[in-house]
Amino acid sequence: MSPARFLSARRRHRSAGLVVLLFGLLAVGSAYAAFAPGNAEADNSAQSQQIEEGKKLFAVGCASCHGLNAEGGTNGGGKFTAPSLIGVGAAAVDFQVGTGRMPAMQPGAQIPRKTPVYSQAEIEALAAYVASLAPGPAVPSADSYDVSKATDEQVTRGGELFRTNCTACHNFAGRGGALPNGKYAPSLMGVSEKHIYEAMLTGPQQMPVFSDQVMQPQDKQDIIAYLKALQNQKDPGGFGLGRLGPVSEGLWGWFVGIGLLVGVAVWIGAKGVKAKGAKAK
Questions:
Q1: Is the four-CA dihedral 231, 234, 239, 243 of positive or negative sign?
Q2: What angle do the packed helices 16-61 and 120-133 form, to 10 degrees?
Q3: Are 53 and 60 in contact (CB under 8 A)?
Q4: How far is CA 65 from CA 24, 29, 79, in A?
Q5: Burial class for 89, CB neighbours closer than 10 Å (0-12, 13-18, 19+)
């Protein structure tokens, strides 16, 4: 009897359905084993390689302050303490290293922004290594901070949010300002959209953390839209005077305006004295 006739004769057997189900599962499993594992292993291998590369970079450039296992530590003769990086996430690393604040040239009350030391690939490797230590905020996607198509409504709403949450430190024009104990809120002019978003997400140095539970992603994007519009805004009259507000503008008026008036008065007085002297002769 041929195999086809054998199966046809037993297709109504009570165990036929179970046999068909087993054959189906075997076929699906074989197909998955043929295609999926190779890609998954390749992805895991690439990620593991990036983490390993980041670990090496960390050991050379970061471990002297933050510890071999990123647990933090005291350096500089006990003058400053490097915080633990366990749980800070990839976003914090991308911000700190991407803006050149880390590695720090020397300890101080405030670590300033400077030209980055590492390339973008090295920054991503460092971020991947720190992210592998414990869960934390991930680097945001480009869609989260893209404001190239922001509407006027978004800019207006972003301005309201910025004035409510940020102007106490960064000033109403985003130009920064002084803080206690030698610290300061840096200017936000010229800062990339991604780094502004990451700063709100992670709260670097003395800045509070505006997580997604505290401030929605759309709110963060609107604030970025406002800052970019503010950066491109022209100064009425041609002089921004630092955009520090009416106090600085008033001081400018007093020192320059009143100074000029005093100078003119002195010049007129000197001319009058000379004229009287000439008549007396």
A1: negative
A2: 110
A3: no
A4: 58, 50, 12
A5: buried
The residue length of the chain stands at 281
Phi-psi region of 123 (alpha: psi -120 to 50; beta: other; left: phi over 0): alpha
Beta bridge partners of 98: none
Closest by CA to 51, choosing from 102, 127, 135, is: 127
CA distances from 62 to 12, 84, 97, 133 (A): 71, 11, 11, 15
Single pTM value for the model:
0.72
What string of DSSP letters covers 79-146? TEEEPP-TTSHHHHHHHHHHTT-SS-SS--SS------SS-HHHHHHHHHHHHHHS--PPPPPHHHH-
pLDDT tens, residue order, the chain (281 aa): 555 555 455 555 555 566 556 666 666 666 655 555 555 455 678 889 999 999 999 999 999 889 989 998 776 555 678 889 999 999 999 999 999 999 988 777 788 999 999 999 999 999 999 999 999 999 999 999 999 999 999 999 999 999 999 999 998 888 888 888 888 999 999 999 999 999 999 999 889 999 999 999 999 999 999 999 988 877 665 566 566 656 666 776 777 778 888 888 888 877 766 666 666 55
Return the structure tokens found at 154: 């978004």
